[in-house]
């Protein structure tokens, strides 16, 4: 019998580097970000293009980190045999923190281009909860490598996301110290102590254990 299949979707602007510390049993594939076809490409249309890498009849796990979790839920609408795992992500737009809901309502986010983070790496470090050393270095590299056009498109899609009606609820992993997308007052199956928004790196061993256990025990 074949082992589990994991499709990993990184966060906004990130790539396979954030998954390098994971040790998963089975087949592991990273769904790399695609360039948006336009600045107004709808999220559902983008998700359909991303889903082309996932066979329709394949039982698998879609593991999405942060904005990647939103895409995982959108892809799952098109792949009914897929199970979704959200890491440091949202299950519904109502979970957006107040500051992001305000930005959505007022369109203020247009006044703060993503390129600003490249000039304020220590601010990004605080929000993501990355520790000094290799974690900070990796976060800094990812921010520097992020395409500003893609980031602007993704931020708009994140803030305007209407949510999805999932056939099966997602399994959620969230850090207790997530400053960027805090999960307060919502159901989370696995709360990782001292985990920040960058816990896919900092808590990779614990996340690996949980994912392997899920894949081994759930049909």
From TrEMBL:
Annotated InterPro entries: AB_hydrolase_1, AB_hydrolase_fold
UniProt entry tagged with the keyword Hydrolase: yes
MF terms (GO), sorted A to Z: hydrolase activity
Domain of life: Bacteria
Alphabetical UniProt keywords: Hydrolase
Chain ranges of the AB hydrolase-1 domain: 8-207
Pfam families: Abhydrolase_6
Protein name according to UniProt: Alpha/beta hydrolase
The species this protein was found in: Hymenobacter aranciens
Lineage: Bacteria, Pseudomonadati, Bacteroidota, Cytophagia, Cytophagales
